[in-house]
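@channel sequence for tomorrow's demo:
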Amino acid sequence: MIRVCTIVTGILLTWQVCAQQRAMQSLYMFDPLLLNPAYAGNHVQLSATAIYRNQWVNFPGAPRTLTATVHSGFRGSRAGVGIIAGRDEIGIHGENSLYLAYSYKIPVSQYSKTTLSFGLQGGFNDFKSDYGKLNPKSPTDPFFGVVDRTFTWNFGAGLYLRSDKFYVGLSVPYGLNNKVVDFESLESEALQRRYYYLTGGFMKELSKDVKLYPSTVIRFQEEAPLSFDFNLLAVLYDVVGFGLSYRLNDSVVGLFELQINENFHVGYAYDFTTSDMARFSNGTHEIMVNYRIKINKLHKGLACPSYW
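structure tokens (generated this afternoon):
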């Protein structure tokens, strides 16, 4: 029997389970729209990002996550729209999601180029469990060959304050506590509890060619322990960046980014697992590709931020 499938299925089917973790990524600082709908349009130009995460390499049934976002500013960059799509797999379970985001930006200070954005998002999650992938001890198991599918709607909101030197964000991207399993013959109280994200970061210029970007994200999930990341990225010549990230009780992450040209930006992260899972896996790989382009009818004459 595939061990991780058994473990995950047991977690999801346990009577008292009430918290289901959402997909976690290490390169989220390069695509903040994944955490906060108020970020939509903050690049001003059209920006498309894809991130692929292969977690716990060599561990059977381990999580694999692919996310893709597209967003752009319009109306003189005061408003922004975006699309957030995702595919998450773990063991016998798979989930597709699609969300639309809208933001509106209010100038706070012209001197420091500080703005405050309000954001909303709404969309759906399509969760599928294929119990036919398991290898039960008895073929008479009532769940043998069963495919369970749960379709749910959700919505979220966020605030995002930014300048050319710092940013702070607060968001609840998924506001509803939806059921994870909606199987008539199975009594389950497993819920996707809402998350609260608090993010922040700033830029420290060491010299003309060297800049530091410390940042953090704090995750509050109902009925789950507090979690946070602390990141430090050094960017050289506004072209290449190297950094480290620490995730509480989970991993230490090596970060790399490269600005290939004015359109393409790529990144890579490797998670050195520090939890007990390190005995069974060879860490986690994650890659990111970002493409940005100005559309004359929408962005002519508008200044685009150099980093966030």
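heads up for whoever presents: The radius of gyration is 20 Å.
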